[in-house]
């Protein structure tokens, strides 16, 4: 993948948290300078000389905070993510932490995780995240919402398919997503369907949690709400769409403008040198090797207040999946369906047996819609690209592709293999 493409993906990743960080600017600095300043230049090939400015160890973790500070007052963190990178294997994982998740806040009682920012800013937020994960983190990046808006506008906006969240619950009227908060200066009015969003509209899309108040046929007031898990899925979809639409299209001058405009909305404990080295790491990562996940939680009411209750067992399993991805361990418990696509009797069973010999634990077989497949295809959904590659290695053939449904958060991760006439069977 071209270096500019990786920059675009990184810029999209920064935007999802609340604004473009301007990492391209950070990278263009002189090698012999102890303090990098904007406007200087550096060759991409020389950036590797600065790799030792990053903390040692295999995994780098950055806490990313999107906050709703207003007029100098500290608000609550509206978006919270942890980006983990393995520079050696060129892998990355992004874990979303729902804002309503009930956690232990150091020095405080249990509360929603977004309250940590109101109590103690980025420092207490980072301490809370570390306690939740049971892992150290290396850096934090706090981004103001206005930086998000400007970054999206400078990057040219994004095309998004707006779900009709309110329609089915408002007498079937197509409404999309609508909410007005005058105090918070948040106004969301998005019609359902595919449309182009500017920065302010995109901010509404990633922040939407519930609708305005409506009245039913009996005059009773109600509102439509979505869960934090659904909102995290919207944010991750925005990330993917921004990256997909801008690959190979956006030019470097626009990236430079994005960086210079939004730097004033950024608070981080990374130095310029560390930022440049981090960019070098992320530029080497293929989007297929970026795993996204969300902290699993259930619903709980305490008094009249809603909280997300951590599902501890599922959370540990999710952390295990993140670690497996970062360390290049292909999990084999993912469902795999093998289809006979060439018509040879028993061929799907032979492939399933071969996969079983290579550690695949959940394999079923079926017939394809057609027996005319000349080439074996391996289609994956969700964060299962590494498993797809392992399947190809086991079978000795196969063309890998992402499922057309892989962007849906309702789609369970799985592998679909259609055996073609190029499969030679067990050797």
Please characterize this protein's 3D structure:
Helix content is 32%, strand content 25%. It folds into 2 domains: 247 residues, Aminopeptidase, CATH 3.40.630; 84 residues, Alpha-Beta Plaits (2-Layer Sandwich), CATH 3.30.70.2390. It is α/β, with parallel strands linked by helices and 427 residues long. The chain has a 6-stranded mixed β-sheet, sandwiched between helices. Strands 18-17-21-19-20 form a 5-stranded mixed β-sheet, with helices on one face. It has a two-stranded antiparallel sheet with strand order 4-5.
How would you sum up this structure in a few lines?
The chain is α/β, with parallel strands linked by helices and 427 residues long. Helices cover 32% and strands 25% of the residues.
Shape: globular
The count of DSSP E runs of length 2 or more, i.e. the number of strands, is 21
Look at the helices and sheets and give the structural class.
Answer: alpha/beta
CATH topology of the largest domain: Aminopeptidase
Question: Helix and strand layout, with pairings?
Answer:
Layout: H1 3-17, H2 23-27, E1 60-67, E2 77-86, E3 91-96, E4 102-104, E5 110-112, H3 115-133, E6 139-144, H4 145-154, E7 158-162, E8 177-181, E9 186-190, E10 193-197, H5 199-207, E11 214-215, E12 221-222, H6 228-246, H7 252-262, E13 266-268, H8 272-283, E14 290-294, E15 297-302, E16 305-310, H9 312-326, E17 336-340, H10 347-357, E18 363-367, E19 377-381, H11 385-395, E20 399-402, E21 414-419
Parallel strand pairs: 1-6, 3-14, 17-18, 17-21, 19-20
Antiparallel strand pairs: 1-2, 2-3, 4-5, 6-13, 7-10, 8-9, 11-12, 15-16, 19-21
Helix pairs in contact: 1-6, 4-5, 4-7, 5-6
């Amino acid at each position: 993948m071209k270096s500019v493409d990786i920059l675009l993906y990184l810029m999209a990743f920064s935007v999802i948290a609340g604004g473009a960080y301007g990492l391209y600017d950070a990278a263009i600095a002189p090698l012999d300078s102890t303090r990098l300043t904007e406007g200087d230049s550096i060759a991409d090939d020389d950036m590797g000389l600065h790799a030792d400015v990053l903390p040692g160890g295999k995994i780098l973790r950055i806490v990313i905070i999107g906050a709703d500070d207003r007029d100098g007052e500290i608000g609550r963190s509206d978006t919270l993510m942890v980006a983990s990178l393995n520079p050696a294997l060129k892998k990355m994982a992004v874990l979303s932490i729902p804002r309503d998740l009930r956690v232990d806040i150091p020095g405080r009682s249990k509360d929603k995780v977004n309250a940590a920012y109101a109590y103690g800013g980025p420092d207490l937020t980072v301490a809370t995240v570390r306690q939740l994960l049971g892992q150290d983190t290396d850096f934090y990046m706090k981004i103001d919402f206005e930086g998000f808006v400007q970054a999206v506008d400078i990057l040219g906006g994004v095309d998004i398919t707006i779900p009709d969240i309110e329609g089915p619950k408002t007498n079937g009227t197509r409404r999309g997503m609508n909410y007005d908060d005058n105090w918070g200066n948040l106004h969301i009015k998005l019609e359902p369907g595919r449309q182009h969003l500017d920065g302010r509209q995109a901010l509404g899309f990633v922040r939407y949690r519930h609708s305005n108040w409506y009245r039913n046929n009996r005059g009773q007031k109600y509102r439509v709400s979505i869960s934090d898990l659904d909102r995290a899925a919207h944010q991750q979809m925005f990330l993917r769409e921004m990256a997909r639409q801008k690959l190979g299209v956006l030019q470097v001058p626009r990236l430079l403008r994005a960086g210079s405009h939004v730097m004033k909305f950024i608070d981080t404990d990374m130095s310029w040198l560390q930022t440049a080295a981090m960019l070098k790491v992320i530029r080497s990562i293929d989007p297929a090797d970026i795993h996204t996940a969300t902290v699993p939680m259930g619903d709980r009411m305490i008094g009249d207040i809603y909280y997300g209750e951590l599902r501890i067992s599922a959370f540990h399993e999710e952390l295990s999946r993140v670690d497996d991805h970062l360390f290049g361990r292909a999990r084999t418990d993912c469902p795999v369906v093998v289809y006979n696509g060439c018509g040879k009797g028993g061929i799907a069973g032979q492939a399933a047996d071969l996969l079983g010999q290579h550690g695949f634990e959940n394999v079923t077989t079926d017939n394809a819609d057609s027996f005319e497949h000349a080439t074996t295809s391996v289609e994956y959904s969700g964060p299962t690209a590494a498993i797809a590659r392992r399947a190809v290695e086991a079978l000795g053939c196969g063309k890998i592709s992402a499922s057309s449904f892989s962007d849906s958060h309702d789609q369970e991760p799985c592998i679909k293999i259609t055996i073609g006439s190029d499969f030679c069977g067990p050797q």
